[in-house]
């Protein structure tokens, strides 16, 4: 994998060829069906969607070249920063993504923020095709009273905190109370509850951050309430996740 940071990569290195082809996907494939053409594709976002896109392109077009842009310094997005640390089997897909990234026809460019460092029109000018496969930039506000009070966090921020997402490393949640309340009944809600209740000595075997592990060692949380607006038949978490309640 060609691991390059934006600040080291000059505009002269852009694979400028010609404007992106117009028309349907079929016409795109036909236009690059001859050996003389080398399609240059830009993928914005290095999470699962981005890497599966790159994998498909490299597999089905022997001459395609793919550049993956990511605002973080490291790749893999949600797989790296969203999966609970006590579920390493879910992160095994990183091995597949790494093989894709090691291709001579694939390059990763970290620390690039589209809209700040480069615009979408500039990418369209430089590549035959641009695929936007980035995830949510922020949480969705509930717009309810008290949402902005201290001690209230979005699941996105809390998960990012214990997984080491740089933008959430200063979160510092107060875990000195004995009860935590989680709004939502999805898999992430169960992940957060399980992390809060799992004995720290069991989390030591995972890739949880040292800062989060230290805070959880001092945690006094003993009870977690999971609150949903619907009944138990409408819960969003999977059966497998509901059976995995950790070691606490």
Automatic annotation (TrEMBL):
UniProt KW keywords: FAD, Flavoprotein, NADP, Oxidoreductase
Cofactor: FAD
Boundaries of every FAD/NAD(P)-binding domain copy: 40-196
Protein name per UniProt: NADPH:adrenodoxin oxidoreductase, mitochondrial isoform X1
Highest taxon of the lineage: Eukaryota
Organism, scientific name: Sus scrofa (Pig)
Molecular function via GO: oxidoreductase activity
Matching Gene3D superfamilies: FAD/NAD(P)-binding domain
